[in-house]
Amino acid sequence: MLMRTDPFRELDRLTQQLFPSTSGTWSRPSAMPMDAYREGDVYVIALDLPGVDRDAIDIDVERNMLTVRAERRPAARGDDVQMELSERPFGVFSRQVVLADTLDTEHISADYDAGVLTLRVPIAERAKPRKISIGAGADHKEISG
To answer: Are the beta carbons of 70 and 90 closer than 8 angstroms?
Structure first.
């Protein structure tokens, strides 16, 4: 029901591991780790965004394209602070997911807790399995000629 849209995601992830000081920009955002699974009649998408303020997260759906963008800003420091080590990435993060036509994009819900953004996308009623009742056939009359 979900499709990956970024064929270079693994390459970006490897680059980020090799060069952790690389931060995402609005024109070239970093990827964010994601899990996606089905839970009953709902698809759940969980995205890791540690240290990102709730107000710095933007979620959009256009047709069947779900886009999540977030920005993690560096912590404000005084003039007398000298950075010894900086491994925590900051900058812009983005993820796009193509949602199947069988999902109800009008009723997506989002929760953010402990640095994890959880999106719940229900399966559309028209896509759920349903029973088809069989009607009684019309009386057949034979026509003799």
So the answer is: no
Contact (CB, 8 A) for 100 and 2: yes
CB 2 within 8 A of CB 36: yes
Distance CA 44, CA 38 (A): 6
pTM value is 0.69
Note the pLDDT tens digit of each residue in 75-94.
778 888 887 877 777 888 89
Give the pair of three-digit tokens for residue 40.
């009953």
Q: Which residues contact 112 (CB under 8 A, 6 or more apart)?
A: 49, 54, 57, 118
Span 7-28, pLDDT tens digits: 666 666 666 566 554 456 555 6
CA angle 56, 110, 25 (to 5 degrees): 30
Q: Report the alpha-carbon distance of residue 58 to residue 69 in Å, rounded.
A: 5
Helix (H, G, I), strand (E, B) or coil at 18: helix
